[in-house]
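Researcher: We're teaching a course module on how sequence relates to structure. For the next exercise, students receive a sequence and then see the predicted structure as C-alpha cells, so they can try to spot secondary structure elements on their own. Here is the exercise chain.
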Amino acid sequence: MTTPAVLRVFDTPIGVLESMGMSDALPGTPTPTTARVAADNGSLVVQRLWWAARFLLALFLFIGALQVMKTGAAALSILNNDGFLVRNAAATLGLGWLGALLVLSGSPVAAAALTLVAAGSITEIEGFAMLTGSRLGAAFVVLLVAVLYALRGGEGNRMAPVSTAVMALSATAVIYIPGSILAFFLLKWGPYHSLNLSFPAQFGDLIDLIYGGLLARIEDLPSAVLFLGGLGILLLSFKLLDSVVPEFSDEQIESSRLSWLKKKWPMFALGCLVALIAMSVSVALTILVPLVSKGYVKREHILPYIMGANITTLGDTLLAAFLLNSGAAVRIVLAGIAGTTVVSLILLAFFYPQLQSAIWKFQRQIVKSKPRLAIFTATLFLVPVSILVAGGLS
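Model: And here is the predicted structure for the students to work with:
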C-alpha cells in the first residue's frame, strides 16, 4: 500500500523539512512570532542602552576624579616639593611602584602621578619616575590571580598559572627598565621638551562648564580629603570601565585557538589590542592565567603578548594627560610609550629567542620551590619600599 503524501510529510524529520522550507506546514511547529522578535529586539536595545549608560558614567567619574585630585594635590604638603613621598625621582619611583601593588592596578596610580605634575606638585622627571613605578607594580595582580588558580587546580596544573605570572612580571621589568632610560633622555632632549600638545581650548571650557560648579563647592575641603577622595572615585571609575569590557566564554576562546597564537608578531598585536580595549594591563595580563591554565595558549608563546600589552596599556593614561590639559603630562606618557615600543620591537626583531629562553629559565628557577617563590613575592614589596625610603631620606 502506497503511503499517502500527507503521511510521508509527517514521517520526514523536522530538520529536513526546515531545509526544504516546509516547516511552516507542520502543525504545532514553533515559529518566531512578530511579538517574540519585537521582544528580543527590545531586550537588545535595553542592553545596549544599559551598556552606554555605564560607560558614560564611568567616563564622567574618570574625568571628574582627575579634576578633584588635581585640586587636592595643589595644596597637599606631603605631595608637594620636598614632601617625604615626592622628595626626588627615586622617592616617586618607589611611591608609584608600591601604590600599584597596593591597589592591584597601575592605571589609577599613573593618573595620580599626572595630576601631581599638572598641579605643579612634582617635576616632570619625578612624575615620569612615578609613572614608571606604576607600570612595574601593575602586573602584581597577575601573581595574585595565579595563586588563586593554583589553589583551585589539580596537583599537575598548579605550576602553570604561577609560572605565567612570574613571566609576566619579569617580562614587564625587562621592557620598562631600559624603556624608561630611553624615555628619560627623550624628556631631557630640548626639541621634545618644548613639545606642548593639548586638546582644543573649547574642550577645557566644556570641562569647566560640567565640573566647575562641583569643584567650587568642595575646594574648601582639606586637601588630603580631596586627593584621597578623588583617588577613590578614580578607582570606582576603572571598576566601572572593567565592567563594560566584553568578556569571552571558554567556548569562544577555544574556537579561536589557531596556529597564529604561536607566532610572535600576531601575539604581539593581540596583546596591544586587548590592553587597548581593556584599558588596563592588569586585566590584559590576568586573562593569560585562565588561558594558560586551560591549555588554550602555551606559556612558551605568551611573551610577545605581554610586551604588546605593556605598550598600549598607556592609552588610558594618555587620555588622562590630555584631560588634565597639561603639556608636561602628555610628554611624560608619550615618552613612556616611545621608549617601551622601541625596546619591545628591538627585542622581538633581533633577540627574541635569547629573551624567551632567559625568561623561561628564570621562571623555572622561581617556581621550583615554595621558598624561592615566597622570596620573589616579598622582593616585589621590599624593593619599592626600600627605594621610597631611601629617596625620602636623601
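Model: If you want an answer key for the exercise: Residues 168 and 306 are 6 Å apart (CA to CA). The chain has a mean pLDDT of 79.
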